[in-house]
């Protein structure tokens, strides 16, 4: 991660012992890296680094999420996780909406500035069973949408989420839409191709040893089914609703009033 820590532009790196160090020149020269600064519990590895803004670097670890702002003092934003360290905590930590999303073994945290709260899929009523939903295994985003996958040890589910709009009901400031489910294997990585003037954005998903993509709408929400998605085996079709009504992948109910003269 690169940030203006200590009032100058520096490169930040982490190691498996839970330490960070800084370099402002030629990072390929070992002597240019400064002292190691411990973040949280010794021996708990760093699983991700995310820059947010000009000065903040978020350090994801197996025992929590830390922030470094203008100096090398790390503030623990998730003290409740210190005694709940897990090797998967912080993997695929991702920045979007001006926030940092930090996956943990049972859900998802979001950090905004020096405040963190749970906003994951575990907040949705009926979805608290992490054995069924699994953990967040990958994240990416574009525009108003944050995409993520959950994996329960057998199947993956693909989700889209966005910030709540004024007056809209939701959980933990996000609204969730299931996009695809019962995908055998773990989605370990996701990537957005932003598109061009003539090409739509695409969501690429790494599912086990397979690669597939979904075509996304250029001007609205998910509304395009691409029959040429990349998939090395299988014939199952997956698609997004063409009658989106801003809630893709959900059942729509319509009422019609007929007036006759």
Q: State the strand order across the main sheet.
A: 1-2-3-4
| Main β sheet profile | 4 strands, antiparallel
The secondary structure category is mainly beta
Count of strand segments: 19
Description:
The protein is an all-beta fold and 261 residues long. 2% of the residues lie in helices and 42% in strands. The protein is built from one helix and 19 strands. It has a four-stranded antiparallel sheet with strand order 1-2-3-4, with no helix packed on it. A four-stranded antiparallel sheet has the order 5-6-7-8, with no helix packed on it. A four-stranded antiparallel sheet has the order 9-10-11-12, with no helix packed on it. The longest helix has 4 residues. It is globular and about 45 Å long. It starts with a strand and ends in a 46-residue tail after the last strand. The relative contact order is 0.08. About 13% of the residues have low confidence.
Q: In short, what is this structure?
A:
The protein is mainly β and 261 residues long. The protein has one helix at 130-133; strands spanning 2-3, 10-14, 19-23, 37-38, 46-52, 56-61, 64-69, 74-76, 94-96, 99-104, 107-112, 115-118, 135-142, 145-151, 155-163, 174-184, 187-193, 202-207, 210-215.
């Amino acid at each position: 991660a690169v940030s203006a820590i200590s009032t100058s532009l520096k490169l930040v790196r982490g190691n498996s012992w839970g330490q960070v160090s800084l370099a402002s020149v030629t990072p390929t020269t070992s002597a240019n890296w400064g002292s190691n600064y411990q973040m949280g519990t010794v021996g708990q590895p760093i699983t991700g680094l995310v820059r947010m803004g000009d000065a903040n670097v978020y350090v994801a670890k197996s025992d929590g999420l830390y922030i470094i702002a203008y100096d090398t003092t790390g503030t623990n934003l998730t003290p409740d996780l210190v005694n709940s360290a897990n090797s998967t905590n912080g993997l695929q930590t991702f920045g979007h909406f001006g926030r940092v999303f930090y996956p943990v073994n049972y859900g998802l945290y979001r950090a905004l500035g020096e405040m963190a709260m749970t906003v994951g899929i575990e907040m949705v009523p009926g979805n608290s069973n992490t054995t069924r939903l699994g953990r967040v295994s990958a994240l990416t985003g574009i525009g108003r949408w944050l995409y993520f996958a959950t994996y329960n040890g057998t199947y993956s589910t693909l989700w889209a989420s966005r910030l709540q709009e004024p007056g809209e009901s939701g959980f933990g400031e996000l609204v969730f839409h299931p996009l695809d489910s019962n995908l055998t294997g773990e989605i370990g990585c996701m990537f957005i191709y932003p598109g061009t003037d003539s090409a739509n954005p695409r969501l690429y998903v790494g599912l086990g040893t397979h690669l597939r993509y979904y075509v996304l709408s250029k001007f609205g929400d998910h509304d395009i089914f691409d029959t040429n998605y990349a998939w090395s085996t299988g014939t199952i079709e997956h698609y997004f609703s063409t009658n989106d009504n801003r809630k893709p992948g959900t059942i729509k109910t319509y009422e019609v009033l007929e007036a006759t003269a």
